[in-house]
Structure formats: C-alpha cells, structure tokens
C-alpha cells in the first residue's frame, strides 16, 4: 500500500509538470495558448499526449485506423496514429469527452495512472523494497504522462509477476498466461514481444532431465495468437489504416525527433538518402545481433546453473534495443526502469543511468527551445548543449555496460544466482535449484 501511495504522489507530480503547458487560453481547435510550442520546450513541460491532440484527428473524436491511411509524404490521416492498435484505442478513449488539449492530457492521465499503480504493486510483490526505484524515480515524474507508456510497462511487469508469483500453477501454464500478457503488450507498444523468446527458452529448459519443447512452442504460440486476435478486427475494418501505423514507423527517418545515437553521431549525414536507407538495414540487424548475443549468454548461464535467466536476458535485450534502434524517445526510460528493480545490478549503474537520463530529458527540450528562438546552441555556447551531450552519450555508454551487467547479475524475483554448479543436458537430471 505504501508503494502505491508513493507512486501516486510521483504520478501527481508528473501530471502537474506536464499540465504547466496547458491553457490558460485555447484556440478554436482546443490548442493551449499563448505560445504553446515555445512554452512546451522552454519550460520543459512538453508531452506527446498534449502535442498529438492536433494532427491525428484525435480532437475530432475519430475512431482510429478504420477509415484512414498514410499519404505519399508520410503524413497520417483519417484517425490513424503511429502506435499499435490498443494504444490507439486508449488515445481515442481519452479524447471522448473533452474538447481541449488540457482535457485530453487530464483524461489520458486518469486512464493511465492505474497502470502505474499496478506496476508498483507487482514490483513490490516481486522484489520488495527495491520497488521504490519505480515509485520514487525521476523518470516516473518526467515521463509518466509524456506518452502512452504506462500500460505497456504494466504488461511487461505483469508477465514477470505471473511467472514468478503464481507458483501454485505449473510453469508451462503460467508462462502461457504471461505470453498472452506480452502479446497484449505488443498491441500497445511492440517491445514486450522481444521478451517472449527468453521466456520460451526458460520454459524449454525447465524440465527435469528433458527439454520442454511443447511448452516453449505453447508460449510462442500464445503470444502470437494474442497479437493476431487483437489486431485482426482492425485489419478487417480498415486494412489500409491498420497498416499505415506500421508503415509510418518503417519509413521514419533518423532525425532530431528520434533522439538516438544514430542521429547524434551522424547528424551531418542524416539529410542523405543513402544514409537513411542504410539505417533501415544496419539498425535492425544490430538490434537482432544484440538479441542473439543476450540469448546465447543466457544459455551459457543455463548450462552452469540449470535455469535459463529469462528476466536478466530480457533486460539485456531491451538495452540492445534502446541503444541500437533508430528511435530512442525520452520516455523509453520507463521501459528499462522496472528491470532496475527486477535484476540485482550494482547501484552505481542505476544512479549513473538515472543522472544521465535526467540530463538528457531536461536539456533536450531546452536545446530545442534555443534552436527555435534562434539563440546559440552549440556545445561551446553554454551548459544546455553540454548537458545534452553528457546525457546522450553517457546514457549510450551506460546501456553498453548495463547489457553486460544484466547478463551477469541475478534476478531479484528468485534465488537463482548468476553462476552455480552443474551442466544440464537433455537426458540428465537437473541440479537442485528453484524452478520458479
């Protein structure tokens, strides 16, 4: 209960921070005035929630995907939003009874806050007092209502909770339920789908003396079936509108809005068509390579300990995605934050990452404001650009370190260590370790 109260206070602070950008006046479209964009950047109260009130037909209460599509220039129309279908429905629901961006922000916050509270409760049940890292963290204040990420984070944490706390249920069955939850997460923001593979490997290696191939396939099948069942009604109702959200992301360019290392490291080349085409291949290949390395290291740990460490492997895979994907929006820190609770990495890693993230999360908007105002914004012109570079590159370096640290660490949700006795092979009895 205390964790939920503390989380509620952080969520309230997060909403108050974003609400500074709303009102006090509104134009004919319900956009906050005066000088909305300047205030959003200059006062560091920008949110995608408020910003996307205009431009996606949200203000017109159009149900998403059914009648829309994507134009040749990449712009969306007809209610299509650039997110998977469940997030689109959530956005539509938040706009139903409001007519201003301020009302949309408030209604969206009310819809998402329960997911933030549920995440706190599950983390508390899983890892005890470490859940304070969620309840009292700066990212929760900065990003809780920056975008629609609290529901998908709740799905990722709920899957871990099902696997590791429904211990009265056989592992195969609870892993299947967790896979369904991860499938729902895919229909919100895609990234929980990457955790299905380590979960399937965890189930595959859980049998005593044999591999549970059927259980692993059941996990994968449950996740895929859930994603299909959720998406098919939208595909049938309006295939072009449904497909437009995926096409939008596939056509997205590496630019300032992506905020990734690819932009900051190669921004002088981002105007080149050849560079953008190369990034469409290089980035996903490197992401997949990081996934393969994480899963392989997890297998080596399984051979030493007798248990596949699916939670640490999932955390490492997420680090690879955040570092190497061509989009790294500020609120993605919320995706990583629960793993600081669920995996026992050293506190220095956590503190350093949170500091780098705060430096980036605040300075990026101040830097954008300086550019908008035409003021000097180079790294030699003041602390804003310097803090931004510290945040961007510090965070990138820490993701590399965390990738390694997660793979070497023990999970806080069980007592399976990073190393242990015994090599487990099919046909041999497994060591006596906890199989939760």
Automatic annotation (TrEMBL):
Topology relative to the membrane: Multi-pass membrane protein
InterPro entries tied to this protein: GT87, UCP010361
Task: Please name one Pfam family that this protein belongs to.
Answer: GT87
- KW Manganese (keyword) present: no
Localization annotation: Cell membrane
Membrane-spanning regions, if any?
A: 80-98, 105-123, 143-163, 175-200, 220-244, 277-300, 306-324, 336-365, 385-408
Give a GO cellular-component term.
Answer: plasma membrane
Mind listing the UniProt keywords for this protein, alphabetically?
Answer: Cell membrane, Membrane, Transferase, Transmembrane, Transmembrane helix
- A Gene Ontology molecular function term of the record: hexosyltransferase activity
Entry's family note: Belongs to the glycosyltransferase 87 family.
Which protein, by its recorded name, is this? Putative membrane protein
Origin species: Saccharopolyspora hordei
Instruction: Show the taxonomic lineage.
Output: Bacteria, Bacillati, Actinomycetota, Actinomycetes, Pseudonocardiales
